[in-house]
Design goal:
The protein has helices spanning 34-43, 158-163, 194-202, 273-277, 292-317; strands spanning 2-9, 12-14, 52-55, 57-64, 68-74, 77-81, 84-85, 90-94, 99-104, 110-114, 148-149, 169-173, 183-188, 205-207, 215-219, 234-235, 240-242, 250-252, 259-260, 264-268, 284-289. It is α+β, with helices and mostly antiparallel strands. The protein has a seven-stranded mixed β-barrel.
């Protein structure tokens, strides 16, 4: 069990989301950067889609009442176990009654994986928290001080991992993927227009204060859509860039709706969605256009690197 001493702001239980339910109007949701959560889970020998914690801001303090393994990934955070610093994408040993403290340094988000996972009830095939619909995760809400989270059973290889951690943290780590800075790579959308696209690519945008897990609302020079008439609503996905009548683009994130009626002018490529998840209000961002074939190759390369890391762990720990 984990006791929440200090919950921080909008800390939620998340896994890799609800798959195959978009036709029923149910958003996939889950971690805004599934790759970060997958890597952290691999480090603690969980299945990659096991539920962990998504941390946003504020001081989060957890007390472990079981001996566990822990790993994290994401933005610029300072995370300590019993006062010892845990580097990003390393595996740490957490002893019984030890405290884990998570402090954001420059905003963004982090994903915390614990061996055995957060064992909340599974709803519609996932343990992810849907804050808009108020279900999943821990009582369908963000964590509060005093919550007590149950943990699942560890995998058999956890004991072998503990034996090879000489001190409090491993000397091995998962691969860390470095993005192209405050640039999001995009491909053309169904409603791409060369004039609109040129305006999108030419300027720097600022993330608006009313951005959330559904999407990043961007502020900048207005991009007037070719027609201010709404289109017939159709499917949208994480990464879709919509252009409302206001002329201010919206980048949809993992918690987005399933359909929309605004023009879909472009899509952020899959490998950059994790970088989009780190953008906070007042951050600046630009866009870079690439071709679909390049986006596919970048995704294949990312999955190859994860597969190699997974294979290495399995060869070492079983």
């Amino acid at each position: 069990m984990i006791e929440v001493i200090s919950a921080g702001f909008q800390t939620t239980v998340q896994d890799c989301g609800r798959i195959g339910l978009r036709k029923f109007g149910i958003t996939p949701g889950g971690a805004l950067d599934p790759i970060s959560l997958r890597l952290a889970n691999l480090l603690v020998r969980n299945l990659e889609w096991t539920a962990g914690l998504e941390c946003v801001s504020g001081r989060l303090r957890l007390r472990f009442h079981d001996e566990r393994l822990m790993a994290w990934s994401g933005g610029e955070f300072e995370i300590r176990v019993g006062g010892n610093l845990v580097p990003i994408l390393h595996c740490a040993r957490v002893s019984i009654d030890a405290d884990v403290e998570i402090l954001p340094q420059r905003g963004g988000r982090a994903w915390l994986a614990i061996s055995g996972g957060i064992n909340v009830p599974e709803i519609l095939g996932s343990r992810a928290t849907d804050l808009r619909a108020h279900f999943g995760g821990w009582e369908g809400r963000a964590l509060r001080d005093g919550d007590e989270l149950p943990l699942g059973m560890e995998s058999e290889s956890c004991a072998r991992v503990r034996d090879e951690i000489p001190d409090h943290v491993s000397d091995w780590s998962a691969p860390r993927f470095i993005g192209p800075g405050k640039i999001l790579r995009i491909i053309r959308g169904k409603n791409w227009d060369d004039d609109i696209g040129a305006k999108l690519l030419a300027q720097k945008f600022r993330v608006a204060m009313n951005s959330d897990r559904m999407g990043l609302r961007l502020e900048g020079e207005e991009i007037a859509p070719a027609s201010r008439r709404e289109l017939v609503s159709e499917a949208v996905t994480p990464g879709t860039i919509q252009l409302p009548p206001s002329g201010a683009p919206v980048v949809l994130l993992q918690g987005c709706q399933t359909i929309g009626g605004y023009p879909k002018i472009a899509h952020v490529i899959t490998v950059d969605l994790g970088y989009a998840a780190q953008l906070q209000p007042l951050h600046e961002v630009r866009f870079q256009l690439i071709e679909l074939g390049e986006a596919r190759e970048l995704l294949r390369e990312r999955e190859r690197e994860i597969a190699l890391f997974r294979a290495g762990l399995e060869a070492r720990f079983g």
